[in-house]
Write a structure and sequence with these properties.
Number of strands: 20
Distance between the termini: 64 Å
Largest sheet: 6 strands, mixed
Order of helices and strands: HEEEEEHHEEEEHEEEEEEEEEEE
Length: 368
């Protein structure tokens, strides 16, 4: 009787202990932040390497010979159109101008004299005082004098041009390089133009890049949906610039280069702060297609192991599931495109990733 009582008491105590243990297990499910995968319309970009070139560039050259007498700018500075950049010794070119002007005055004087002579010959011919051949000779002399005036005017213009070349100005606004010659150096520009510096018109720069054949096909398929995006193509640089830049599509080559299978593209970039320079490397994020119903999750919720990328999804029974995913690009600063593995409205763990594991029961805390 006593043993039966003790056995019953043991069974009752064991039942109470198990009940308490189960209750403790249920309340031990950790609270974990969870969010729904969302859908949104996003633009897919491919990144291509490119280089920047100034919208316009020109070599500043000397076209006359003489000593370089002055340089009127600071190396690398921004100069305005018409700014005097260099002067070259001009004494012989001033002399040439004076001589050409004197020759022109002589030609004009000769013409007036020959014109008077011709008029006199015509009067004499009307009185039969001279022969026709003499009139013709006077006319030829007058016409030659008129031609001499034109030659003298051309020679004067050439002399004035050469004198003008002694003062070299900027043909447009832009940044200018250091000079190729020091002041005092002799420049022999009459034989062949001699480069003195290079001027870059870089208020607008051009991003030159090439996209592959696959990118060409994707672009052509999605072109109608990309018209607005092509006005704001993101640009990234190896060294982050103080300002963000985007370009506007300005040129698509009409042909694919058969040797490389690529298509040349140019985008113009406004450069109001002068931070972008000719020759810089750039990564161009070129829009390829639009996904109207892309699946997005928080980029920070994605982990990596030997098999690739994965997330912890959460079932309707609040059980954690190891879920491999295929990812796309980052959008909206912190969201990642999921190409496969999750569907819209699937739940996934957003924080405390080290605290969860496959098959674990959790108490979801929904976040946005």
């Amino acid at each position: 009787m006593k043993r039966s009582f003790l056995y019953s008491a043991f069974i009752m105590a064991l039942t109470v202990a198990c009940t308490r243990s189960n209750a403790g297990t249920e309340t031990a499910s950790p609270s974990i932040d969870v969010a729904h995968a969302v859908t949104d319309s996003i633009t897919v970009y491919n990144t291509y390497p490119g280089t920047l070139t100034a919208n316009n560039s020109v070599d500043i050259v000397a076209r006359v010979s003489g000593s370089l007498t002055s340089k009127r700018y600071s190396d690398g500075e921004f100069v305005k159109k018409g700014t005097l950049l260099f002067t070259i010794e001009d004494s012989k070119y001033r002399d040439a101008v004076n001589q050409a002007r004197a020759a022109l005055e002589t030609a004009k004087s000769d013409y007036e004299y020959s014109k008077t002579q011709y008029s006199s010959m015509l009067n004499a011919l009307s009185r039969d005082a001279v022969a026709q051949i003499q009139v013709n000779k006077a006319k030829n002399t007058m016409e030659q004098s008129a031609a001499n005036i034109k030659n003298a005017e051309a020679a004067l213009q050439t002399a004035l041009d050469n004198l003008g070349y002694c003062h070299i100005t900027a043909p447009f606004d832009g940044h200018i390089t250091a000079p190729a010659f020091s002041v005092g150096a002799y420049i022999n520009g009459e034989v062949s133009p001699v480069r003195l510096a290079t001027l870059y018109e870089d208020a607008v720069v051009r991003a030159n890049f090439n996209i592959d054949d696959k990118g060409v096909q994707e672009m052509l398929k999605g072109k109608d949906a990309l018209d607005l995006k092509l006005d704001s193509i993101p640009m990234e640089f190896a060294v982050k610039t103080p300002h963000n830049y985007s370009g506007k599509l300005s040129y698509i080559s009409p042909e694919v280069d058969p040797s490389t299978g690529t298509l040349q593209i140019i985008a113009n970039i406004d450069n109001p702060d002068g931070e972008l320079r000719d020759g810089m490397y750039v990564n161009v994020k070129f829009p390829i297609m639009t996904l109207p119903h892309a699946t997005l999750i928080k980029d920070a919720s994605i982990s990596t192991d030997q098999l690739g990328k994965y997330v912890y999804s959460v079932t309707d029974y609040n059980t954690v599931v190891y879920t491999p995913v295929t990812i796309g690009e980052t959008v909206q600063d912190s969201m990642r495109v999921i190409l496969s593995g999750l569907s819209p409205d699937d739940r996934y763990v957003t924080k405390a990733l080290l605290k969860v594991r496959e098959g674990m029961k959790i108490t979801p805390v929904m976040t946005e």
